[in-house]
Amino acid sequence: MRMTILHGTRDIRIEERDDPTILESTDAIIRLAATCICGSDLWPYRGIEEVSSPTPMGHEYCGVVEDVGSAVQSVKSGQFVVGSFATSDNTCANCRYGYQSSCVHRDFITRAQAPRLRVPLADGTLVPTRTRLR
Ligand SMILES: [Zn+2]
C-alpha cells in the first residue's frame, strides 16, 4: 500500500509499504476514512526538528475496523472508530483515572497517512461509534 514518508526538511514522499497485519492479540486493523496533518508533523517538515531516518507520517485518524485480534472485545469488524494518537490499554491505574494518554503501556501511532493502519491495544486506543459500515 502507499503511505506518506517524511525523509527530511520539506521532503515528503509517497512510497509502497507492506499492508499491516495483526501482530498481537490486542491489535486491530482499520481502513482509514480520514487522517490529517498535525502541528507536530510540521516541526520536522520545516526542519525545526531533525529527521534522522525516513519516518512514516500520520497519527490522527478515523476509519472502519477490518480485523481484530483474538483478545479485542470493544470494537468489531465493520464499526466506525475514532483513534487516539497514543495507544492505551484502558486497564492500568493511569487509564482507570482517565489519563489514557499517560498509559503505562503507551506508544505513539504512526503510519496513519495510508489506506490501512494497525492499531495496538485496540480496546483502549479506539473509540467505537454506533455507525457500522462495510
Ligand atoms: Zn493504561
Can you put this structure into words, describing what you see?
Strand 1 (2-8) and strand 2 form a beta hairpin. The model has no long low-confidence stretch (mean pLDDT 95). The chain has helices at residues 39-46, 93-96, 122-125, and strands spanning 2-8, 11-16, 28-35, 55-56, 61-68, 79-83, 116-119, 126-132. The longest helix has 8 residues, at 39-46. The protein is globular and about 40 Å long. The chain has 134 residues and is mainly β. The protein has three helices and eight strands, in the order βββαβββαβαβ. The chain has a domain at 21-37 and 57-132: Medium-chain alcohol dehydrogenases, catalytic domain (Quinone Oxidoreductase, Chain A, domain 1, Alpha-Beta Complex). The strands form two sheets. Strands 7-3-5-6-8 form a five-stranded antiparallel β-sheet. A three-stranded antiparallel β-sheet has the order 2-1-4, with no helix packed on it. The structure holds zinc ion. Zinc ion binds next to helix 2.
Give the bound compounds: zinc ion
In spatial order, strands of the major sheet run 7-3-5-6-8
What would you say the CATH architecture of the domain at 21-37 and 57-132 is? Alpha-Beta Complex
Let me know the largest β-sheet: 5 strands, antiparallel
The dominant shape is: globular
- State the CATH superfamily name of the domain at 21-37 and 57-132: Medium-chain alcohol dehydrogenases, catalytic domain
Strand content: 35-45%
Q: Rg to the nearest angstrom?
A: 15 Å
Helix content: 10-25%
Which stretches are low in confidence, meaning pLDDT under 50 for 5 or more residues running? none
